Amino acid sequence: MSELLITRRMTDHPADSHTLARYEATGGYVQARRATGMTRDDLVEAVKTSGLLGRGGAAFSTGMKWSFLSPVRPAYVVINGDESEPGTFKDRQLLERDPHQMIEGIIITSIANEAHHAFIYIRGEYPKPARRVQQAVDEAYAAGYLGTGIFGSDFDLEVVVHLGAGAYICGEETALINSLEGRRGEPRLKPPYFPAAKGLYMKPTIVNNVETMANIPHILAMGTDEYRELGHAEDTGTFLFSVSGHVEKPGNYELPHGMTWRELIYGVAGGIRDDRELKTWIPGGASAPWFVPAEHLDLPITKADTGQAGSMLGSGAVIVMDETTCVVRAAERVVRFFAHESCGQCTPCREGTTWLEMILRRIESGQGRAIDLDLMLDVSDNISVGLGWPPKQTTICPLGPSAVSPIISIAKYFRDEIDDHTANGGCPQLRKPVPVSIGGSR
Amino acid sequence: MPLLYLAMREDGWLTDEGMTEVAAWTDLTPAQVQAVASFYTMYKRERTGRYLVSVCTSISCMLLGADDVLHAVEDRSGVPHGETDDDGLLSVEHAECIGACGGAPAVQVNYELIEGVTPERARALVDWLVKAQPDSVNGDEMQQLFGGITSFDWAVAESDSALGPYPAFGPFGTVQENR
Fold first, then answer.
1. Which of A9, A90, A131, A326 to mutate to test the interface with B (most CBs of B within 10 A)?
2. Distance from CA of A378 to the nearest CA of B (A)
3. Is A86–B59 a contact, with Cβ atoms under 8 angstroms apart?
């Protein structure tokens, strides 16, 4: 097994990895203290050179993001802990088990971006992670690592823990900013509302993911060269994969990129439960187009290879489905999620996702028609023009096109199964139709 | 948003009076406050029971039998999802992904998490809530009693866990003074 970085402390010290005492005993806060004596240019350059890509799903260079920050002040740092992408549960582990690691990352990020206020936005359904983070923030304040004159320097930093209230869309950075301001979590149009220029309270804002923050102290501690070597080519550092579904050993696995899907699913995750056959898997969270064993099992897991194959690594959530899975039902669940979470601003997404969900449900329950697949592709084309990858979206944010991913996936790989549903009265695996009562309510 | 949580904590759910009061504090109209509240799933604008049982039925949980867990909860409690019993004790809902996919299927009670729940354990959970009626629910305790496989090692239990009734957490998001 490879080198652990951000899950090292919780692995070695399960009993108290979340406490300040353990954090400091294992080298914690050394880099934040050091950073108080460093300049914005030094820090931005270090993170840029490290090659760190944002771990929230978009995989954009963190250093580049920092370098785009407008010179207007005040600036804010906002941490995205609104982890809600189906299949993803990595940030929850980082928040619960090693909150100080993230806080140290926040301190360094705030120094690099000359921000004296940082906000940690945690989804409302994560009360325990939020309590753990609040305790850690309190400890850091008491130790003089947050507040006025941190580490005895002249740098002030206030950190606020904020809870969401149940809206996946708040994981989109501009929606998160709206939510933090106390508004409906609707994404803003970019341009003009790029957070780096017009973010929180219309001030320059850096929005970074929890896992991204956890990497920052290690980059300074190891140096950029060693950090790069830990990874694989362009994908530097380690990556947290959340593996779920029909595998023997679901869980979060911290790994470098570069292994094949076969090695991840059959090696690391212990293979398919009960020795069944693998049918399909989602490589990067519910938003990503699906992969199938015949084409993708020996593909290396890298950002570039996954992108070329028409999907993405996204948030690192791998959802594995075995031969017993009805793909229509699986697609219905994914689409239902996006229909429920659509903020409703853009018509193609608000109407499209709802229709896709209803059409899938009628196919599953035996009321599907032969033309329904074409109808779904037509609706999808209104959200994601040309149905290509990456999507050409007709909407403000990528939520709508995310709902299209399962549709194009099942249309591409499982057309026969859909036809079987429409021709023969619904799902062959079900004696009774899907209870229509599940889902749909908003 | 923290004010809406406070209002909900006060009344058990978000009443029109609560929202009107928040509007007065924030210098907004009640309609503006309602517009924000209605956006978020966790602000309950209908009467909600003392224990809100949320069964995740998103993709990873569904693959491992979440629909059966939901039906078990509905059958045992007699409360269909999206509704509350007459005594105001239990509300049942199906939830979208609650970030416990590695420990699927997952259930939350007042947002305190239990992973690896089977239909049998779900029935036992309902029975326990009805019988024991704890003042506050604790995820670590419920995981011990009714949980199974977890997404990751939970390690040590929280010493001072979930506080008070629904919603099971205190007001976050307020800047703390006098540091």
1. A131
2. 24
3. yes
pLDDT tens string B86-124: 999 999 999 999 999 999 999 999 999 999 999 999 999
Q: Which residues of A touch B62 (CB under 8 A)?
A: 329-330, 333
User: Between chains, do A165 and B2 touch, taking CB under 8 Å as contact?
Assistant: no
Residue range A91-131, pLDDT digits in tens: 999 999 999 999 999 999 999 999 999 999 999 999 899 98
pLDDT tens digit string along B34-52? 999 999 999 999 999 999 9
Q: How many domains does chain B have?
A: 2
Closest Cα to residue A372, out of A418, A405, A318?
A418
Q: What's the gap in Å between the CA of A247 and the closest CA on chain B? A: 10
- In the three-class reduction of DSSP (H, G, I as helix; E, B as strand; rest coil), residue A6 is classed as coil
Show the DSSP H helices in A79-209 as ranges.
90-97, 99-112, 127-142, 173-180, 195-198
Radius of gyration of chain B, Cα coordinates, nearest whole angstrom:
17
Q: Give A47-70 pLDDT, tens digit per residue.
A: 999 999 999 999 999 999 999 999
Residue B167 resides in a domain: no
pTM of the model: 0.94
**Is the same domain home to B120 and B62?**
yes
Q: List where CATH 3.10.20.600 sits in chain A.
A: 239-322
CATH 1.10.275.10 fits A327-423, yes or no: no
Task: With beta carbons less than 8 A apart as the criterion, state whether A317 and A57 touch.
Answer: no
Q: What domain range includes position B94? A: 51-146
Residue position matching structure tokens 């080519």: A233
Q: Which of A19, A281, A333 to mutate to test the interface with B (most CBs of B within 10 A)?
A: A333
Select from 2.40.50.140, 3.30.428.10, 3.10.20.600, 3.10.20.90 the CATH code of A239-322. Answer: 3.10.20.600
Query: Which residue in B5, B59, B96 is closest to A87 by CB distance?
Result: B59
pLDDT at A436 over 80: no
Q: A236, A255, A242, A253: which is closest to A281 by C-alpha?
A: A242
B59 and A341: CB-CB below 8 Å? no
Could A88 and B99 be called an inter-chain contact, meaning their C-beta atoms sit closer than 8 Å? yes
